[in-house]
Amino acid sequence: MGYVTTKDGVDIFYKDWGPRDAPVIFFHHGWPLSSDDWDAQMLFFLKEGFRVVAHDRRGHGRSTQVWDGHDMDHYADDVAAVVEHLGVQGAVHVGHSTGGGEVAHYVARYPNDPVAKAVLISAVPPLMVKTESNPD
Q1: Where are the domains of the chain?
Q2: What is the pLDDT of residues 105-122, one digit of tens each?
Q3: Which of 9, 18, 28, 73 is deepest in the core (most CB within 10 A)?
Q4: What is the pTM of this model?
């Protein structure tokens, strides 16, 4: 467990369990949950010999509580910061709800990470509703 600081100064909490040389499964939680919601799945795959990683999205769990940066670009960039920090390129990425959208956007935004598989569970598409306060 630890933290990585993103380019815009947000501390992202992550869990990293298992052998460093094992295949990696990276879990992405839904809104408004945290990495803790994946503990049962992480423990299962850990026992099967995998390295398992999960993070708390910005504004969630133990990550910095911020009012801005709640868009898929920032979410994907935060994932990239964790991936780079831990050296877990080529992982299987599993995302639930908003986490599924985060996975899809990460795969599109970071094509140089050869993601092994993307597993999307009841995923929210990687876009946000356009409103006056969210024009982009």
Answers
A1: 2-121
A2: 999 999 999 999 999 999
A3: 28
A4: 0.91
